[in-house]
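I am still learning, so can you show me any protein sequence you like together with the matching structure tokens, please?
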Amino acid sequence: MAKKIDNNPENGNAIKSEIREWTESIIIALILAIFIRAFFIQAFKIPSGSMRPTLIERDRLMVNKLRYGPLIPFTKIRLPGFSKIKRGDVIVFVYPQDKKRDFIKRVIGLPREMLEISEGDIYINGKMIDDPLIKNRYYYNRENSQYGKPGQIIEIPSGQVFVLGDNSQSSHDSRYWGFVPMENIIGKAEFIYWPFNRMRLIK
């Protein structure tokens, strides 16, 4: 038996209308996803152990871009945020020596401060930091580093921060390559969302 031909043009129009609605929904969803990623939150995966024990390999975390104010894409213009960068914050930033890579470290020194690493402790403007987020970790001097030699006092430039990994013995951080410009900062690491048994706020 020959297949019946549907000559009703309304059926074809209905199919086209449904396809158009699906296409529009997908496009809108993609635009919203890009907008949220650009201005609100972004997911990251930890590739190394430089932030142990705070963050371990394969942790997945959410980074809040609103806290410091999101950057307008393809510019160095930052929109107003609802807080300023503080010492002890864990931040994600564009690695200054390779714009294609993102790093995560802890903020140790703020703009225009004098910083020294001595016998595992951090000194800012000659005073030892007693904040538990920093004090309870041992920070190593490195003879082969640019900014981490014993007895070296570092002046942090205006508009930049000094960052260190919590796992100081195995971290490639500001001791070796210098400072992070404010425009490189993507946002504050807020919480681990995966794996399930490690879900927590990041401190």
